[in-house]
Amino acid sequence: MKLIIAYIQPETLNDVKQALLKENIAKLSVVNALGCGHQLGYTEQYRGVVSEVNLLKKVRLEIAVNDDYLDRTIDTLIRVARSGHIGDGKIFVVDLLECIRIRTGERGKEAIG
Amino acid sequence: MKIWQVFLVLVLCFFFYLTAVFVKEANRTAEGGENPYSEQAAASAAAAGEDTAQGAEQEPAGPAAGSIAAWTENLNILWVILASFLVFFMQLGFMLVEAGFTRSKNVVNIAMKNIMDFAVGSIAFFAVGFGLMWGLDRCGFCGTRYFLPTSSDVSSVNAELGWTFFLFQTVFCATAATIVSGAMAERTKFTSYLIYSLVISAVIYPIFGAWTWGGGWLAKLGFHDFAGSTVVHSVGGWLALAGAVTLGPRVGKYSADGRVNAIPGHNILLGALGVLFLWFGWFGFNPGSTLSVTPQIGYIAVTTNLAAAAGAVAAMVLASVIYGSCDATMTLNGILAGLVAITAGCDVVSPLGSILIGGMAGCLVIAALLFIDRVLKIDDPVGAVSVHAVCGTFGTICVGLFAADGTGLFYGGGTKLLITQLIGAGTAFAWALGIGFVMFQIIRATVGLRVTRHEELRGLDIEEHGMQGYPNFDTWTTV
């Protein structure tokens, strides 16, 4: 079992969600996030004053998958969330020790289902 | 040379021209000539009483005509200027309805569109539009004089009200212009929208206005549009349709498999506030169109109010039958539908008739919304086409049925007025939709009408205006 944590551009969220659904990956959490990568922020203008925005708005996806779904999920994320520009985001994959569905008490593979 | 540079040069030329006119005018006054904006200039033109395009009977004007007459005149001016301010207030309503019914990433753009179309439109209407609309001369198609009007010009058009009448016309023109904004929300290039608002205020609205209110051929046919169901709302609404069709739907509105997706508005409370502002402003729009203080003001306010109320009730009931819940956005559209529909006949229909017209408009707007959204697959985020074009046309035709002064079909007046109303509504359809398509196609081919997909997804606030509407709120995720 793996936990995929992906930071993507907010405007790609809808496309990513649709694409994941097509790959039969329907269970995900979405969290708003602030962050800073290689872009080092961007500039915004407010009443003629340029302000450096150092932290960018990103969306963090958390997807728990069984091992056989791992590559598929990562491929989909890269395919849809990539624009080729700096700031497209990153994907982290970590081992998942356990997964428990609260309603039934199922554990492991079935709980991720 | 890029196309926006051409427009910049044109705008600069226009301002140079205005400056030249200004210098000439200032020199003439300095040399002891008559100031064209003085009280005397206006009064003498009014006394001359030359061809008032209004066609209404005119009292002898000026304070010298006796104190009662002066009182009446001043009261009329006061009422119409207050009504103008109320109609101006409708701009707030349009802005809030559009902002509330769309996503938070575009609010700055929507505010800017609604403010700038009034600003650009005011200047364009002063420079060109007013003359085209009210300067009908031998050329029967459109007006040919009173461009950049002076005091004597506006007094020749309306001896009693003068500049007050001019302001009243300006805010009406701005209402027609701002209707289109809603249908084109969330995907239109800002500069293209400014060009559009220049064209409607300077040309499209005034020419149709000349045919109806300016004494043109529709007026001669006996076409009855008291406060502008057709002249203001249908013209704006059909232009909105042309704009929405030319633009195409927003990203994500229609899936490739033909599914229709909802794109919910970000603040229904703002939308509701806007509708209430519009309802309030309509008490200037319809009763103000009497252009004088008469007992009719109250009557018109009542028919206007009843139609709005009936539109709200009918739309809410129908929405709850269809969806099983009292849909707020449909109810709000129902209110506007009732108001738009009653605008043409608010002075001639009976209070009961106004309830019927408003109620039917409330049902019609839901049918039109569903038809345009589901069947025609035209993306109109706020329902501007359904509310203004469809219900405006409906209200105009209803005058031919419900006119209680004996000319309506239901009151034994036969079909004469009904046919005239149909001709008028059909003309508005052909004129606004036809010229709208031509204009938007030209804009699309030159400056471009639509932002890129990336800009649309990120939101027009950041992309077009470099700032966010709600920088301190959680508005990352965009559907």
What do you see in this structure?
The complex is a heterodimer of chains A (113) and B (479). With 113 residues, chain A is of the alpha+beta class. Chain A has a single domain (2-112), classed as Alpha-Beta Plaits (2-Layer Sandwich). Helices cover 23% and strands 36% of the residues of chain A. Chain A is built from 3 helices and 6 strands. In chain A, strand 3 (42-46) and strand 4 (49-53) form a beta hairpin. In chain A, helix 1 (13-22) packs antiparallel against helix 2 (70-81). The longest helix of chain A has 12 residues, at 70-81. Chain A is elongated, with a radius of gyration of 17 Å. Chain B is mainly α. Chain B has a domain at 81-130 and 152-249 and 271-449: Ammonium transporter AmtB like domains (Ammonium transporter fold, Orthogonal Bundle). In chain B, 67% of the residues lie in helices and 0% in strands. Chain B contains 17 helices and no strands. Chain B has helices spanning 3-30, 39-48, 67-100, 107-134, 151-157, 163-183, 190-212, 217-221, 229-247, 268-285, 296-323, 328-342, 351-375, 384-402, 416-446, 453-458, 460-465. Chain B is globular, with a radius of gyration of 23 Å. Residues 50-57 of chain B have low confidence and may be disordered. The chains are: A alpha+beta (113), B mainly alpha (479). The interface between A and B is medium-sized, with 15 and 14 residues.
Give me some keywords for this one:
heterodimer; A: 113 residues; alpha+beta; Alpha-Beta Plaits; two-stranded antiparallel sheet; 36% strand; elongated; B: mainly alpha; Ammonium transporter fold; globular
Brief digest:
The complex is a heterodimer of chains A (113) and B (479). With 113 residues, chain A is of the alpha+beta class. Chain A is built from 3 helices and 6 strands.
Order of helical and strand elements of chain B: HHHHHHHHHHHHHHHHH
What is the overall number of helices of chain B?
A: 17
Structural class of chain B: mainly alpha
Summing up helix and strand content along with how strands pair, one would put the structural category of chain A as: alpha+beta
Largest sheet of chain B: none
Backbone CA Rg of chain A: 17 Å
- What is the helix content of chain A? 10-25%
Largest sheet composition of chain A: 4 strands, antiparallel
Mean pLDDT of chain B: 90
Order of helix and strand elements from N to C terminus of chain A:
EHEEEEHEH
The count of β-strands of chain B is 0
